[in-house]
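Whiteboard transcription, Tuesday session. T.W. wrote the structure tokens on the left side:
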């Protein structure tokens, strides 16, 4: 029976880097992975979707070539097999690099198989029992399949099975109008599919400000994506080769018939098949691990990280442990980005209803030289500050280059520096970031 100082279940964002750090500190570590090394981000999430988004962007630019004075003779064609092959190569490079790093690290043993707890200090993998003083849970999540009427009668895709698609769906119906649904929707529209996004809420990406949601809707609709909001009662039926989604929307036809269906309605944690009860670990009603802050022995024995943790936002930076340096995990600064185009990074503002004197600066991308030069003027930049403390409270950026520019704001927030530091800075021209000081120079009260 092998004995380890630590067992890490799952090789997602935190698992491997934690393993390297523990091994570096002289510990003997077992890492267990039931499926693909690298987890969601590397295999079915961030990396492959951004590779696909890049292909879709190339298709979009090729179609717009004439606007830039570039002449392309003949039609623009999309070879979905090559699109997938490119994506697969990028993913494989990342996964293989991580796999060999784990396999070749002294003091780390990589086990392939599904881990289940046998007790608070032991897990079982295909009949083999491993013991350790510390067990780290990094099991992540998978696509949520909601119990909507008819779901078991129709074929459906998730972000994972979408990775095997090497053809162009004639009409892709996407249930879910948040980041994942939007990324796939815009991407497949750009590849040439007809796309309908069905969203239960009255607007897309509902945690964004209303005008951001409206701008996003406008952008995807202009590209030809059909958006159906307020779809409170969705049911599904198979009709010949088609999948029919019955939608109870306030506007539009009551049915949408398509060739393929993608579910993008959220994630659920992979905690239901871990036998957590044998280890005394408790989950909430949605399956997220509850952290027993008062139970010290439990806390000593277990560590958990990543998506499976209660209320962890489902984004990679929140689920990562830095391999080499100690990064600060801020529980107050919540930032993320969707990488549809234009990118839409956000830093969630603690401003609303806070009683603070909130000021906002704003600029449309039509007044950002870099965006005009690139021919990508959709969206706007908005920064919120506290008029008294001069603290930056948050930002909504929607525009080309904004997924990079947002970090200037984020760094200032981590430094707890007043916005005036950036307001007085001289940024490089021509960039999107160069307008951030200008935005901060024109602040107005927010009601
Ligand atoms: C389509 C899509 C696009 C995304 N794009 C972005 C993005 O652009 N930016 C961003 O920040 N985030 C993005 N995310 C979110 C990001 O992928 C996740 O936040 C991140 O991968 C979560 O990491 P994790 O380590 O918690 O879990 P995971 O990456 O899911 O890793 C968990 C691992 O544990 C393994 N495992 C589970 N149970 C067991 C078991 N019992 N035994 C052994 N192994 C087990 C799994 O096989 C998996 O490999 C995206 C997600 C999706 C779905």
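and on the right, the sequence the group agreed on:
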């Amino acid at each position: 029976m092998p004995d380890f100082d630590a067992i890490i279940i799952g090789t997602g964002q935190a698992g491997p880097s934690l393993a390297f750090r523990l091994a570096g500190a002289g510990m003997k570590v077992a890492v267990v992975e039931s499926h693909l090394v690298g987890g969601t981000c590397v295999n079915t999430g961030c990396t492959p979707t951004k590779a696909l988004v890049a292909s879709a962007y190339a298709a979009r630019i090729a179609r717009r070539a004439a606007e830039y004075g570039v002449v392309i003779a003949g039609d623009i064609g999309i070879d979905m097999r090559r699109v997938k092959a490119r994506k697969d190569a990028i993913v494989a490079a990342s996964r293989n690099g991580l796999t060999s790093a784990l396999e070749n690290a002294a003091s780390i043993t990589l086990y392939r198989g599904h881990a289940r707890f046998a007790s608070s200090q032991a897990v079982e993998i295909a009949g083999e029992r491993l013991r350790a003083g510390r067990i780290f849970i990094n099991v992540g999540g998978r696509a949520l399949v909601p119990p909507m009427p008819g779901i078991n009668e129709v074929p459906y895709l998730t972000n994972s099975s979408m990775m095997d698609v090497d053809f162009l769906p004639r009409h892709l119906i996407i249930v879910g109008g948040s980041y994942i649904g939007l990324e796939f929707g815009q991407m497949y529209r750009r590849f040439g599919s007809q796309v309908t996004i069905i969203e239960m809420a009255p607007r897309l990406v509902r945690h964004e400000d209303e005008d951001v949601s409206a701008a996003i809707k406008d952008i995807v609709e202009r590209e030809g994506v059909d958006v159906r909001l307020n779809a409170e009662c969705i049911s599904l039926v198979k009709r010949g080769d088609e999948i029919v989604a019955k939608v109870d929307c306030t506007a539009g036809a009551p049915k949408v018939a398509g060739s393929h269906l993608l579910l993008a309605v959220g994630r659920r944690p992979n905690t239901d098949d871990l036998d957590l009860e044998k280890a005394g670990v408790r989950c909430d009603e949605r399956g997220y691990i509850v952290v027993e802050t008062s139970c010290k022995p439990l806390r000593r024995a277990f560590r958990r990280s990543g998506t499976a943790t209660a209320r962890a936002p489902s984004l990679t930076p929140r689920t990562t442990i830095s391999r080499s340096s100690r990064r600060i995990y801020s529980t107050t600064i919540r930032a993320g980005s969707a990488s549809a185009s234009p990118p839409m990074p956000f830093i969630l503002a603690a401003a609303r209803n806070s009683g603070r004197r909130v000021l906002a600066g704003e600029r449309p991308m039509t007044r950002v030289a870099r965006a005009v030069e690139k021919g990508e003027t959709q969206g706007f930049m908005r920064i919120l500050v506290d008029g008294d403390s001069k603290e930056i409270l948050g930002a909504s950026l929607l525009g080309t280059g904004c997924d990079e520019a947002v970090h200037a704001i984020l760094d200032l927030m981590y430094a707890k520096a007043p916005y005036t530091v950036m307001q007085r800075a001289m940024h490089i021209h021509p960039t999107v970031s160069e307008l951030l000081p200008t935005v901060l120079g024109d602040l107005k009260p927010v009601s």
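Someone added at the bottom: The two ends are 65 Å apart (CA to CA).
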